[in-house]
Design goal:
about 65% helix; 4 helices; single chain; mainly alpha
């Protein structure tokens, strides 16, 4: 687990931000994960992050399919 992921999870209970470089690293990391790799309590937070990142077009083009799949899978797991 990378620092940026831990920081994202911590942000759900604290105020703060992720820098652009942290988001780039986080997106690269998240693109390698499946829904089963993310603990249930963290899934909503990760899903919300992905929704914003994808809607803001702040994701590298080659990562979009992987991150969209992860977000969709996270949404399904939260139902």
């Amino acid at each position: 687990m990378i620092f940026e992921y831990k920081k994202l999870i911590k942000l759900k209970s604290e105020e703060g931000t992720l820098s652009h470089s942290e988001c780039v690293k986080l997106n690269d990391y998240l693109a390698t994960l499946s829904v089963e790799d993310i603990e249930m309590p963290d899934r909503k937070n990760v899903s919300e992050y992905l929704l914003v990142a994808l809607n803001m077009n702040s994701v590298e083009i080659q990562l979009i399919p992987s991150l969209e799949k992860l977000r969709n899978d996270l949404q399904e797991s939260l139902k």
